[in-house]
Amino acid sequence: MYEKKFICIFSIFATVILVRREKNFSC
What we know:
By secondary structure, the chain is mostly helical. It has one helix at 2-18.
């Protein structure tokens, strides 16, 4: 449960860093 949330947050963070223009992250 907690790990899934951490992965989701990490994915969003990574996506924002890699592609700050496009907000293409699915939680």
